[in-house]
Amino acid sequence: RILTLCETARKQAKEPVLRWPERLIGVVVPDSQIASGSDPGVQGLSLLKGLLLLSGMYEDRSPVAFALEGGPGNVTSLAFSRNRTRALVFPLAHVDGTSVWSEDEEVMIWEAVKKLVENPDVPKVAQNGAAYDWFTLAWTYGITVRGYAHDTMQAWWELFPELSKSLATQVSLLTRWPFYKPDKEEGGGLKFASDL
Predict the structure, then answer these.
(1) For 114-129, what is the mean pLDDT?
(2) What is the rounded distance in angstroms from the CA atom of residue 60 to the CA atom of residue 51?
(3) pLDDT tens by residue, 33-62
(4) φ and ψ at 184, to 5 degrees?
(5) Backbone torsions φ then ψ of 170, nearest 5 degrees
(6) CA torsion sign, 41 to 47 to 49 to 52?
(7) What is the spatial distance between Cα 166 and Cα 163, in angstroms, rounded to a whole number?
(8) What's 70-135 look like in SS3?
(9) Which DSSP category does 180 fall into?
């Protein structure tokens, strides 16, 4: 695998311009907040459109990658994807902790999420899903994930136990995206993510 990565880097070094992978992230926001941003890879979507796309994932039954941010009692966003270039994100809380949605709207979101993740016919993929995301859903919302197919963190660890299991490490080594998480500062000095 390392030789493949080196060969990819050698080929990319010969290109005059670094070509980033195509991506489109649909961010579901209240209608009053839909605006075209400066990033062409991000698109604001209405709640109705987001729920329809989530419902399509349920009906299509293709594998779905799933992630949440936050933790038990404080899920701040949910993300879903069926392929490597498209994602659907539902922000749930503002930075100050207040909800993005009305109570009724948030109930609709969680009902759609429950329908999708509890469907055993839709294979689920996650990064550390069993230990974190699935626990958080069960503990906080009573949602039981069914159809759990693959955990990228566990698979990576089995293949490369000497390397960091973080998503940031995997992204930097397995994709054309650069390392995207900054190193942490501890005690006045930088601490590299690989040391954590």
Answers:
(1) 94
(2) 14
(3) 766 555 666 788 889 999 999 999 988 889
(4) -95, 150
(5) -60, -45
(6) positive
(7) 9
(8) EECCEEEEEEEECCCCEEEEEECECCCCCECCCHHHHHHHHHHHHHHHCCCCCCEEECCHHHHHHH
(9) -
**Interatomic CA distance for residues 126 and 56, integer angstroms:** 19
Quick one: tokens of 48?
Answer: 């109705």
Name the DSSP class of 37: -
Map residue 45 onto helix, strand or coil. Answer: strand
Token digits of residue 111: 């009902």
Q: Which amino acid is at 131?
A: A
Ordered strands of the 124-126 beta sheet: 42-45, 24-28, 86-91, 74-81, 64-71, 124-126, 148-151
In one letter, which amino acid is 117?
V
Tens-digit pLDDT profile for residues 165-176:
887 787 777 777
Cα separation, 6 vs 68, in Å, equals 32
Q: Are 110 and 141 in contact (CB under 8 A)?
A: yes
Q: Which residues of 9-43 are buried (b: 16+ CB within 10 A; e: fewer)?
A: eeeeeeeeeeeeeeeebbbbbeeeeeeeeeeeeee
69 DSSP 8-state letter: E
Does residue 65 contact residue 126 with C-beta atoms inside 8 Å?
yes
Query: Token pair 């109930």 is at which residue?
Result: 107
Question: What CA–CA distance (Å, rounded) separates 196 from 183?
Answer: 10
